[in-house]
Design goal:
Largest sheet: 7 strands, antiparallel
Helix content: under 10%
Distance between the termini: 23 Å
Number of strands: 50
Shape: globular
Structural class: mainly beta
Number of domains: 3
CATH class of the largest domain: Mainly Beta
Radius of gyration: 29 Å
């Protein structure tokens, strides 16, 4: 536990200038954060970095809009506001500060100037660089030799101007590595990916005199469960946060050549000329095609050798954590399809894994568009997968927006073994915002089913059930997506959603779609809650359904899952005690399964829930949570984190066997990733993150 005096000391450093935590600023440099200065307009203010003086216009110490604390410097602009600072420092190299433009209205001019031998010189024109709101801009101005007077000039509409905070005067010093750490962001290591980041090295370089070069970096892969499952390991420079839409191109140049994976130390040699600031190097591995996806991979940073002979090492060479293996089930451009989305996943009566998803042939756009439904099939618990099948394709006519069909949900009839897939078809430019009242394909989105009676090998022609279940005034009716269930009495249930009519402003409602005659006829429940959409359904005790819903109220964070239960197939719903309370959700599709019922059809009260476990965008932190008491409480603090990166965020769970959970999810490392997770790593009691070595 950190003592109170240490906390006071830490915050005094942040607020009063000895420590900078702002993005792009330098640590260990005196920083003017304005927190100690008296609030309000001023003409002169003494600071630890020098004397501030307003020589034209108006300026204040603002006490409500600081970038980190409360206070900042505000130049009001107008015809011109000019503030000078007489610098109390020696040999300087750069002035650096956070800046925020008050308004987007023009005109806007902001100049940083230095006085040399009695003459003013512009050292940075930031007029087009400073962004509106949020202190999104780091202004950096080179300091000419001999500067002792600094000037900030702003012209803008009256009473707007610019906010300035975290001002630093960077001295001329020899280059040093001021910070070196190794960490393991939680990311899946996927068979099929050529780039798999498993360890990140973060460096900060300060100073510019006598620039440094890195000549070698030494790592090891200690803690990896089976080194024979990997071909090569590489070092790649890249950003701290990786881009998820094209993950295999998220990293940049390699340092040295790729090395064969082997036990013990692995040294990479090269020549890397350092520049001042932050750098990030990732350790990336290439798994073999037959790598064990139940395995773990680990890495450590041992040392970095500089050109001058010095060796630098992190304080912790092997950070806490290991990475779980998996498969890149669908990647960008797999089988010529640029984007894959919207996963569903079930285990058939014979143990076959069946995953459905959108084939988005025009990129990331939703329906309407050139979208079909694809299926992947595995007969060995997800270790290998057959070639993709296209199981729903309604046409390719541009005149009808390619007759797109998508957002699939999949269900196993446990009584007959039949596999059902539901999807929404759009004959023309319909989609979420264009579908309207009526029944016909040119009026409204169509609810289609296909079935397989041979364990997912072949599929029927589409069966249109729109007229069976849709009300004519509704604008849209569709399935989950994700997966459905077979209840204890044999009733088939899909999660569903519909939009009210135009008079109801198209507001959406979650519900269920059900059949008591093995799919011959279908019926629809009533609304579970207003303004909800994509849902997941389980049966709790016999005859009681639980619906976990995406709730649009979360667009004003914090977002939570809406939960309701029904004892009459959605005829009536009751808000659950955990609704809008227990589970964070960034307004996203999620998955929910009842472990016992998924395995044997019998209730055991254990529920698993997967989603990006955050309460606002961006969607990130794909997590599996566990409840041991029918969803009354959840182990959210001990939930299993699979992927901390950002992604589109949809997921679907299934039980592979009594010991193993399967999940397909939209990952930061592949459009669709599949992983096998030991149930014991998820259920209570478990250590937070479940990745300890």
């Amino acid at each position: 536990m950190v003592g109170p005096m240490k906390l006071i000391y830490f915050w005094s450093l942040v607020l009063f200038g000895c420590l900078s935590i702002a993005s792009g600023q330098q640590t260990g440099v005196p920083t003017l954060s304005f927190e100690k200065l008296k609030s309000g307009e001023f003409s002169r203010r003494s600071t630890r970095l020098g004397l501030l003086q307003v020589v034209a216009g108006r300026a204040e110490i603002d006490d409500a809009h600081g970038s980190q604390g409360r206070k900042c410097l505000h130049l009001f602009g107008g015809k011109e506001t000019t503030v000078t600072m007489r610098v109390n420092a020696g040999d300087l190299r750069e002035v650096r500060f956070q800046a925020e433009r008050w308004t987007a209205r023009e005109p806007f001019v902001f100049l940083v100037e230095a006085q040399i031998n009695g003459k003013w010189r512009t050292i940075e024109d930031a007029s087009t660089k400073v962004k509106v709101g949020g202190f999104k801009t780091l202004v950096r101005a080179p300091v000419p030799e001999g500067m002792r007077l600094l000037r900030l000039r702003c012209s803008s509409p009256e009473n707007s101007g610019i906010l300035i905070d975290q001002l630093q005067l960077i001295p001329n010093t020899p280059m040093e590595c001021s910070s070196l750490t190794a960490s393991q962001p939680v990311l899946p290591c996927l068979v099929g990916n050529r780039v798999n980041p498993i360890l990140r090295v973060d460096l900060e370089w300060t100073g510019v005199i006598e620039p440094l070069e890195v000549r070698s970096i030494t790592i090891d892969l200690a803690g990896t469960s089976d080194l024979n499952g990997f071909d090569t390991v590489s070092l790649m420079r890249g950003p701290k946060i990786l881009e998820w839409r094209d993950p295999e191109n998220a990293l940049g140049a390699m340092f040295g050549a790729a090395q064969k994976v082997r036990p013990g130390k692995i040294t990479f040699t090269g020549k890397w000329t350092i520049g001042e600031g932050h750098d990030h190097v990732w350790v990336s591995v290439l798994p073999k095609a037959d790598a064990d996806i139940d395995g773990l991979v680990d890495a450590g940073l041992l040392s970095i050798q500089l050109e001058d002979g010095r060796t630098i090492t992190p304080s912790i060479t092997h950070p806490k954590g290991v990475q779980r293996m998996g498969i890149a089930l669908r990647k960008k451009d797999s089988d010529g399809v640029p984007v894959y989305r919207i996963p569903g996943l079930v285990t058939s009566n014979s143990g076959t894994l069946l995953s459905v998803y959108d084939l988005r042939r025009q990129g990331w756009r939703d329906l309407p568009g050139n979208i079909d439904v694809g299926l992947s099939r595995s007969t060995d618990g997800g270790r290998t997968w057959e070639a993709m099948r296209t199981i729903m394709d309604m046409g390719q006519d541009k005149k009808f927006a390619y007759d797109g069909v998508g957002d699939p949900a999949i269900l196993v009839d446990r009584t007959t073994g039949t596999i059902w897939v539901a999807a929404t078809w759009h004959h023309g430019n319909l989609g979420w915002n264009g579908s309207g009242p009526g029944f016909d394909p040119h009026e409204t989105g169509q609810l289609l089913l296909v079935r397989s009676d041979d364990d997912g090998v072949t599929w029927s022609a589409p069966i249109n059930i729109t007229r069976q279940v849709k009300q004519p005034e509704w604008c849209f009716l569709l399935q989950g997506p994700g997966r459905g269930i077979t209840m204890e009495d044999g009733t088939l249930v899909f999660p569903a959603q519909y939009q009210l009519g135009l008079q109801g402003k198209r507001e959406p409602r979650s519900t269920v779609l059900w059949s008591k005659d093995n799919g011959t006829s279908w019926h629809l429940g009533t609304e579970a809650k207003s303004n909800t959409t994509e849902a997941a359904v389980v049966e709790l005790k016999a005859g009681t359904l639980m619906l976990s819903m995406r709730d649009n109220r979360g667009r004003k964070p914090p977002g939570k899952r809406a939960i309701a239960t029904s004892k009459d197939l959605g005829g009536n719903w009751k808000a659950h005690k955990t609704s809008s309370e227990a589970l964070n959700d960034p307004v996203c599709m999620a998955s929910l399964i009842h472990v016992g019922r998924d395995l044997t059809g019998k209730a055991d009260g254990q529920l698993l829930f997967s989603n990006p476990a955050v309460d606002r965008a961006p969607r990130r932190h794909m997590t599996i949570s566990h409840s041991k008491n029918y969803g009354v409480t959840w182990n959210t603090k001990g939930a299993l984190l699979l992927d901390e990166g950002a992604s589109a965020g949809y997921s679907c769970l299934t039980m592979i066997n009594e010991r193993t959970v399967g999940i397909v999810y939209e990952s930061s490392r592949a459009h669709l990733a599949f992983q096998r997770i030991p149930l014991a790593a998820i259920i209570w009691p478990t250590k937070t993150n479940s990745r300890t070595k």
